Amino acid sequence: MLCIRAFRGGCRGREAAHFLPRLASTLAGGKNRFLSSKISVAVEELEPSSDSPNVDEIPLQQPISQSPVWSWNEWDPLEEVIVGRAEGATIPKFTVEVKANTYEKHWGFFTKCGGQQFPADHMRKAVAEIEEFCNILEHEGVRVRRPDPVNFSDVYTTPDFESPGLYAAMPRDILLVVGDEIIEAPMAWRSRFFEYRAYRRLIKEYFNQGAKWTTAPKPQMSDALYDQNYPMNSVEERHKLAAQGKFVTTEFEPCFDAADFIRAGCDVFAQRSQVTNFMGIEWMRRHLAPKGIRVHTIGFKDPNPMHIDATFNIIGPGVVLSNPDRPCYQIDMFKQAGWTVIHPPTPLIPDDHPLWMSSKWLSMNVLMLDPKRVIVEKEEHTTRKMFEKLGMECVPVSIRSANSLGGGYHCWTCDVRRRGNLESYFNNVDLE
């Protein structure tokens, strides 16, 4: 039996010193408390379930060797990963939830081309880039798995709506691995309702080999889930609405994308976004509590929140990349817990490069191979230098064309197995 350990300095002192030698003194000497400070932020914080167990008292079994699914954080040595597919990707219809998550300069593209496949020349480049990405992962010793090819331009009908699909490009959006369990997210875009079908062959294989498999409640995605009058005429207006805790998704039923959750052992951090509502976060909180996992809601100054990993990306024990353009309202709590907060440099992606469903901050959407090696965009020279100064080895890859579909290396992957055990990177204190 293995009991969860808590460490001074908000992380594993010995491993943190190895991981960031230049910052070892900072990490080792950091105070290990989250102060119960009253932070003025219009992001609701749901109360933890009263029956949530104390994580320091829960004994955990060692990894079950026959289960291929095992991952507790974002940085332990990566052994197996799912990489998405660009094939079959279809431009979503310009519905209210798509409008709320995209930039005005691309609205004409969605209005004109919704339901068609993405430009063929661009997709050929994206497919080739992802194939090379898979080759590099395998060269680094990682087993790569792929979802099934699907023609997402086919239109489907439910009792509540009709829509074509989107893609199976971003497994991080739909799958969350916590320990030996793989969780299918319900999603919030109508075009992603049946996206899970591309992954079912893999998930059934993992289940048959001993993994746990959970599917979150599937939303109806009726009109009641969306604020049909959600105003979004300007960035300033979106800032005001986000600060008030108002988003295009309502609290009609639970919905969430898995990419709005980021893992750090016993603690998982989530954001209320345009695609993840408080009911969805609460479902995840109650579901993970018996494992000894605490789910915390954090917020950011972001007019268009969708997926946490290009805003707040945890890259090691007690170390996080925090987007300087989208400051975290609770960042002082991390600092007071002894965490090291790193602000990545401004992205270098050209202004004329098409990013139909994301911002340039995919530059910080990196994938950790282990605490000392990171997959990073080859053209992002300043980001590479940042990691090198932290004592890490950069594995440069280029997926610029694939970025256009809305994701970086973290988004394009779902880590199925990492070599490590469940640990706490905070002291035994109340983080709420």
Q: Secondary structure elements and their pairing?
A:
Elements: E1 2-3, H1 13-19, H2 24-29, E2 59-60, E3 78-83, H3 96-100, H4 107-113, H5 120-139, E4 143-145, E5 155-157, E6 162-164, H6 171-174, E7 175-178, E8 181-184, H7 200-208, E9 212-215, H8 235-243, E10 261-264, E11 267-270, H9 278-288, E12 294-297, E13 312-316, E14 319-322, H10 331-336, E15 340-342, E16 367-370, E17 373-377, H11 381-389, E18 393-397, H12 400-403, E19 413-418
Parallel strand pairs: 3-4, 8-9, 11-12, 14-15, 17-18
Antiparallel strand pairs: 1-2, 3-19, 5-6, 7-8, 10-11, 13-14, 16-17
Textual characterization of the structure:
The protein is α/β, with parallel strands linked by helices. The protein is built from twelve helices and 19 strands. It has helices at 13-19, 24-29, 96-100, 107-113, 120-139, 171-174, 200-208, 235-243, 278-288, 331-336, 381-389, 400-403; strands at residues 2-3, 59-60, 78-83, 143-145, 155-157, 162-164, 175-178, 181-184, 212-215, 261-264, 267-270, 294-297, 312-316, 319-322, 340-342, 367-370, 373-377, 393-397, 413-418. The strands form seven sheets. A three-stranded mixed beta sheet has the order 4-3-19, with helices on one face. A three-stranded mixed beta sheet has the order 7-8-9. A three-stranded mixed beta sheet has the order 10-11-12, covered by helices on one side. Strand 16 and strand 17 form a beta hairpin.
